User: Fold these one by one.
Assistant:
Number 1:
Amino acid sequence: MSTLLPSRPPRAVVLLSGGLDSATTLAMARDSGFDCYCLSLDYGQRHRVELDAAARVAKALGASEHRVLRMALGEFGGSALTDNAIPVPVDGVQPGIPVTYVPARNTIMLSLALAWAEVLGSRDIFVGVNAVDYSGYPDCRPEFIAAFETLANLATKAGVEGAKLTIHAPLIDLSKADIIRHGRALGVDYAVTVSCYQADEHGRACGICDSCRLRREGFSAAGLGDPTPYLISPQESTRRPELP
Amino acid sequence: MSTLLPSRPPRAVVLLSGGLDSATTLAMARDSGFDCYCLSLDYGQRHRVELDAAARVAKALGASEHRVLRMALGEFGGSALTDNAIPVPVDGVQPGIPVTYVPARNTIMLSLALAWAEVLGSRDIFVGVNAVDYSGYPDCRPEFIAAFETLANLATKAGVEGAKLTIHAPLIDLSKADIIRHGRALGVDYAVTVSCYQADEHGRACGICDSCRLRREGFSAAGLGDPTPYLISPQESTRRPELP
């Protein structure tokens, strides 16, 4: 007599910052049938409150596990997100690579996801990078993701032994409005996410950094209500704020 | 009147584990005219004493700076080097990828070196991987290094802005004996290095793990005296040791 065992869903490692994009990515990974293991990095970012948001998002979207690894990238400096001496720009998205770029951050985060995936026996990594309504970061481009996937298959025991590792970047070609529409359809509660580069300890957003601007414009273009508690309203956004 | 300023030597980031290979790599980088910034990773390795060795090596070989970053890869487990429940093999180098392989370790270390290089304005990263007398790790192969170099140039602001980043792996085609001969010629004192996967807190080597075997055979093939304090002598190496 044979017994049919239910097959276990495949595992995926999902990089989760706690922002809008990574929350949507997690919802999409789950919707594709993956058992999701979420990884966040406490790298000395100014907006550490996003890590609390990541924990809420992982729980709300049914992740099997959520880990926060510590890695003091702030010791290297070189970014407005890790060095308090470099102000976060608030005058609107400019051409070129902004000072909020954190050197090699996505390479480091994908490398850590790769390590965990290998231990979990997972062949799938999800990352919420986006090359449309984004901030001009080099490590958010499709060619970067493709190069990392090539590397992953050469770097690991799994790859060498013939398992194909895939780096999924399901948002890469979507506008911010489309990302929000997808997430809403999958039940993402954006009120628990934090995108702002300089959110206060309560998770309130400045309203005027690049990340707030892209988020706000995304909700507006999607024709959906924006649940974000902005400290500066759109009407006031030409004024400089006094942030804590 | 014009003043001729002496040109500063270019900076390089050198990954330094504290073992024989990375010490030789540092000596070669310095010999090539680079101003060397050494990076070690405290990742929860069994043989943490190698980090003390790294500090001694960096000092002895005139590095401008030596940083040790902490990153708890041990939390992922999956390797005899980070999980005390998995014994280090001592029965000789076997075909295939051994349990001392740490998932994605070289990818992670190169990613961190890339971040620091970008902040330092360095275009050169040195890593002591070797594909001849090595332990069968996938991330020690030339195709892995080439893929990481491609990635590095896509991942970073420097790469996008036209600077060519180079990953130097000067040992990749050398035998262990040739590595030792090169290092000796450049003044490396191998007595301060630690290769053993389970060295004790005094830096004494077991003598029978894969790393000890490769090191010992390298000195023998090079016809040079081996300064390593092995706990088990070559004659005894079929016997199992009682390690602390």
Number 2:
Amino acid sequence: MMKILITGFSGFVASHFVEFLYGLEEDVEVYGLSRSTPVFNYSKFEDKLKIMFFQIDLMEYDKLKTIFSEIKPDYVLHLAAFSSVAYSWKHPSESFTNNSNIFLNLINAIRETDTKCRILSVGSSEEYGNVNHADLPIRENQEIKPLSPYAVARVSQELMSQVFVDAFGMQIIMTRSFNHIGPRQDERFVIPSFVKRILDIKYSGQTSGEIETGDLSIIRDFVDVRDVVTAYYLLLTKGTPGEIYNICSGRGIRLDEVVKTIAEEVGVSVTTRTNPEYIRPNDNKEIVGSPYKIETELGWRRTRKFRETIHDMIIDQESCR
Amino acid sequence: MMKILITGFSGFVASHFVEFLYGLEEDVEVYGLSRSTPVFNYSKFEDKLKIMFFQIDLMEYDKLKTIFSEIKPDYVLHLAAFSSVAYSWKHPSESFTNNSNIFLNLINAIRETDTKCRILSVGSSEEYGNVNHADLPIRENQEIKPLSPYAVARVSQELMSQVFVDAFGMQIIMTRSFNHIGPRQDERFVIPSFVKRILDIKYSGQTSGEIETGDLSIIRDFVDVRDVVTAYYLLLTKGTPGEIYNICSGRGIRLDEVVKTIAEEVGVSVTTRTNPEYIRPNDNKEIVGSPYKIETELGWRRTRKFRETIHDMIIDQESCR
């Protein structure tokens, strides 16, 4: 019996991770922690998985220690995060607390309860900052230059992981996860919001329309959340503690290409207009990662192409209309 | 009239900074912020300086904003910190909050109140971590490798400074301050605690005695707090925003040499015994900085030799017995 504790259990990535666990041969006990009640219906997995949910703010340190003392999980997947760059510009302090401080509480609770477990600390491609085109795709040894409060919070989390690995021999594996997208993603994020607004055009009976956007010339590396959770499982079970792994597709896509793909899949024609309010201070122009390390060390491969993911996101949003 | 706001006003460094301001020709208004009432008697400076004290925890964001709205200082010297490495191992979360989070609150309050001021963000030589002997003395472009929760918190503060400088044009100057020592330093810190215990030997009427210590083979770069505050003033008024400056002596001293110097100055003979409890996880072996940048750019020079500082610390502690 494998015991996995998942923080940020109410979120998008957790829902896909549980679905992945459901597909495994192994017996798994899942302990989900979150401030808010899960939006996904996990009861449908309970014929096979044993799932227990704990409503907790990870800043409640004593409560967290009690949970670890009682459960003693084998694996901890730390997904809880305020993962929006935009939000971090508006609420830097809150963003910092809900990334760096909650993580520090988590690993300290694990240490103080002497819980022997492997921990996955999820970081972000945002940690790299602006990288010269010549240095793309980005490898893990690239110098990091965080450009937003969110990115700084993720770097802090990573540095703290390294300190706890070195000082206490804790088994923390780290990721730098690139933009993940997929069904059930919150519409406040950029790609799902494009999908939503392009579907709005279709469902209003139009064949063409306009959407407002930020800077569409920026390039990101998108990876399907279902491939991401496979990577997380591989890293949790087989990754090397103290090591950092990119999780990415290796391919950069301009945001205007994203809009075009969605429009094609939805079957409407879309024009765009830039709204300066959507432009973030000091944004990274181009982020494309190299998945070489996780591919060669752990045999991970992404299985879903970008257009397929977009297609599934459209189907998912349409099914909820 | 120059308005200077000082956080961490109740502390050791603030007391020396106020003393330094007292010696200036200029008219200065000092606004001191601290959680606790200042232990130093600042009324003796009030014949020349206008000093106002505000009791505040920097986590009280709204109160902080009100203070900035009302005062609109020209300079902010941010000294508030939990600056003990040892403490950060025991209370990592609290240490992190009282370094990184309070700093983020501070700069965000300054930004949101549109206060045009120059800010000094004090960092630490601990950010460098273990540096190869060949790379000593450490220059500011040395790669940083924080090895303790405290060091990570200081790196986070520095990264956040850089983000706010780049994104909002804030005028934040950063230091990496090496171990500062001097009169009035809290006896929980290592050098004052050596002084105290060696004075205990003398005042118990003995000519020799034993003290328990941690690892005495480690090497640190000690700089007199009175030279440090001169550097802080120079940086606040003339440093380049977005730049980092070492504040150090350029000379490494082994802790056993420190014990020897104190013993000689006190006039007793001291043997030492290692207590493993005093040995920190993962400590840096040797930290020696290069003051080249602040010396050449701003003309700073340290004025007090190590033995002179030790002498003054002994006199100070003796006067309080």
Number 3:
Amino acid sequence: MLEQVLPKPHGLHARVQEAMRYATFAGGKRLRPFLVLNSAKLFDVDPAQAARVGAAIEVLHTYSLVHDDLPCMDDDDLRRGRPTTHIAYDEMTAVLAGDALLTLAFEILAEPATHASAEVRSALVLRLAQAGGHNGMIGGQMIDMQAAQSTFGIEEVKLLQRLKTGQLFEFSCEAGAILGQASAEDRQRLRDYAHDMGLVFQITDDLLDVTSTAEKTGKAVGKDQDQGKATLVSLMGIDGARAEAEKLARRAAATLAPYGNAAPELAELPMFLLDRES
Amino acid sequence: MLEQVLPKPHGLHARVQEAMRYATFAGGKRLRPFLVLNSAKLFDVDPAQAARVGAAIEVLHTYSLVHDDLPCMDDDDLRRGRPTTHIAYDEMTAVLAGDALLTLAFEILAEPATHASAEVRSALVLRLAQAGGHNGMIGGQMIDMQAAQSTFGIEEVKLLQRLKTGQLFEFSCEAGAILGQASAEDRQRLRDYAHDMGLVFQITDDLLDVTSTAEKTGKAVGKDQDQGKATLVSLMGIDGARAEAEKLARRAAATLAPYGNAAPELAELPMFLLDRES
């Protein structure tokens, strides 16, 4: 689906389209499209429509990585073992490619192919804009950039994570319910699941940062500690954080109980994350 | 309306919201909201709805200025006589504030307050994403960034302008017709008008860059020439470019003839631009 929604480079502006593709086709776990596809299964959604929404979220996630890697942000030269977009191209092209990916996410959602109902398309656009905007992902990024100079407690770190990564996870799961024109209760349930699953994701990510090696994770480790940033692991200790993640993983699976075994991958994901090595 | 749609700074991420406001409330001609409001008059649209769409376009236009001013792009320290956003704050905050303004534009359009019909809201989102995306404004910006190293002819410069500034003008005018649920013919007519008006805007801008002083325009002049960028004025000469602008201004006004005197400000705008001094 990503191949279908990304532009073919053409014309005098081909360079920005090439950079959009370079940033997007870089591997990655595709966790957010996975969440959309599997939450959509609960509500009998056409998988092609779910794939389009998954592609929109992945494209938006990719823009956030391109901009986060810029010299004025995290200043990363490598991502997933390849030069970051501003290294492979240049900073100017990376800024523009990120802007274009963000814009493309909304274009995909608003196209009639995403859903026959314009109410559904509008709701998807609205929720993605909220999840990705100043009170969502970007707000979380702003807090994160100030984290090294701050003394955050557990509540502040949870808020940071909920905004920076959690909101997009919540939208990814809620999107299946929106596509299926499910009830407000269903939408809330999927958001609750995503909230807990997102914290499990984050805690296990922080645990890997402390306990793993760069070889296993494919990226630099010990970075938060080096930058003096508080994490749930530094605040709760390795054992405390692991216990919290296990509790959240159980609660996330229980949240999906009303759907029986309709989307086993979704129910198993939090437990799977507890064992991840990368 | 801008005051209503921009967030009030709050919480740990207040800084990015402050920067969004700083960039937006910096004066400016508000030409794009003017185009929406006046094209909406042709189709009996609720002015409050037109104002919301105008605000969305202005917010998107503002993001493009914030990112264009970055050191890796045009590297401008001043805009409208004030420090640019990355000078007043820092580069990181400027990147994030631009991203947040872009996202906010789509949030505004998708909110039910913009129009009762979700079909209309979806159409607005889709057209703004196309106009502002890789085949629109961002594509034009990409071409512009390569212009100093290229030998563009009249067709290339017209394409650059049509993408970089023209597409957003076209959407601003078409938006009135979309809000009024007008015919495809009306939508095309408004785009045709905007196409010609946009070129008049650009040619007169280029003429000011050559013939005016920084005192009158409030910004640096002679910049295109210094950078070795071709413009319609450098390619057609001052007299040739002025004659072209006059021809386009007459054609733009004639395009609106079917609407009689329903939106005189729109019909007069191209002629008004011919006489502008800033």
Number 4:
Amino acid sequence: MKEGSFQQRYGHLRRLIDRRLASLVKHDQPRDLRDGLEHVLSAGGKRVRSTLLILSCKAVGGRTVDALNAGAAIEMMHNFTLVHDDIMDNAVERRGRPTVHIKWDVNNALLVGDVLLGIAYECLLKTRTRDLRRVVELFTEGLLEVCEGQGVDLAIEPKRHVTLSDYFKMIEKKTARMIGMSTEIGGLIGGATARQLQALRKFGHYLGRAFQVQDDLLDVVGEKRRLGKTIGGDIVEGKKTYLLLKAVEGARGKDRTVLARMMSHAGSASDTPRRKVKAVTDIYKRWGVIETARQQIQRDTRKATGALSGLPKNDATSMLCWFSELLVKRVS
Amino acid sequence: MKEGSFQQRYGHLRRLIDRRLASLVKHDQPRDLRDGLEHVLSAGGKRVRSTLLILSCKAVGGRTVDALNAGAAIEMMHNFTLVHDDIMDNAVERRGRPTVHIKWDVNNALLVGDVLLGIAYECLLKTRTRDLRRVVELFTEGLLEVCEGQGVDLAIEPKRHVTLSDYFKMIEKKTARMIGMSTEIGGLIGGATARQLQALRKFGHYLGRAFQVQDDLLDVVGEKRRLGKTIGGDIVEGKKTYLLLKAVEGARGKDRTVLARMMSHAGSASDTPRRKVKAVTDIYKRWGVIETARQQIQRDTRKATGALSGLPKNDATSMLCWFSELLVKRVS
């Protein structure tokens, strides 16, 4: 099947998911709560996790209709983490719109997040599958991992000495596990064999890692218009990204001193955010970490698509491969 | 069976539940997260919801061991709501100890709440029962109701005109539904018939209402030492309790003006908290609302225990009756 056709089918899937998500908000809820839920769910997004879940289900012989509720559930859970993480990180913008705690307040954002998680389970439980217990177990494991990952993130945020190994531990919990869970749940619903489930989990795991490093990279080389957020935001906040930690490992001399200041959130009082972004981006370029990040992404993507060889050869499996490459080629 | 024996068995059940709860905290979690979870789960409490769940299971022929995981799950979910509600209400104390967002910060409290909910599902999913889907569905309905109830609470909090009907709508979602869900899930696990389930739901519903009005009453007539919180706290905060709303309905003249000021959170600048508590308590006494609250509690408790006639006559059913009366006789 051709790329254009995959693109069309992806558009179709996204519309299906968006419609299902919109249908889950009840209209008799307290007004701020309902408006907050609609604000979050109408903001769009790539629907990466649900698309992967549905395609994984189809790759092993299942149908879209069987996986749609679980797909919507995973998007709900993902949005729950975004709303709560945005409170914790005090983020003001998400997908080009104010975050919930900015548009309303922390109380409403807290509650909107909690309700998103409740609706996620409600929706997941509508799934018709042989082993619902296992599906809900996996979903819950994913929830706990992503929360723990956020806990690790909060714990390393104020630390001066953070290594790439800490970073991978964190993103494995925050991103890779959730994507691996999406592909595995899709497989379970589609009736995958144990070997196919293992392949799907491996695929999701490496794709999740690649996806997160790509996210870090886009903060440096992306375009604001397409990302819906300000470029260099991670640098301004001194976030411990793949690029920063890799640069700290490699850089020497004055560049190393500048990066050490970034790690301790000290910075120079005379630095404007713009100058800070330029200075750090230049260091990244000088020490080749942008290229290293690209290689890391390629390596993990290859491992991910390699795992697809354990699945039946069909249109959905080809589309999973196409989708993986689309994700890691985003605007970079 | 005698009262002393019920008291002993209740003590035994509480220890079983406390031990199960303590066993659910993992030790490889980020430190603040783990300490926060232990802080919450070691604070004790009456374990009302889990005790009701387990006794309901036994009343229809089930065993304690079959209901213990679901009981622990319900306590976890209850504690999740407490931790998040305490952030929203900016409460500083709970069960005589600092709340999580006070002892740590809002970020950790947010995350501790989220993880409590995740562990709740994890624990619930260990339940061996004929219809796990229905058990998890009920649990999720309860979660959504309690969140919506908190939404209603936040929405009516700044309003001047709140009626008793608003109040009952709120507590039905925040308290009665959760207790009705506990007894219903217990029944499901114990293999209850449809009629028995209906009786258990009705029992929990009315007991939950009685329990909440009793909670409001204890703020006025309770003892700090036994409650672990300051008496008159609701009055100082201008919380819309059963007593305040009933007094607003009935009082006339100057008393009505004082209560109207309370409803709008204005108060008099010269009022110390102590004087405010005394003034409002005196109004409650003058207009007989303390007595009215007691009657309301008795009426709902009678409806609750009346519903128990739909259950088999056995020790567990008798203990449910004993426990209901114990709950609404707390120190008042």
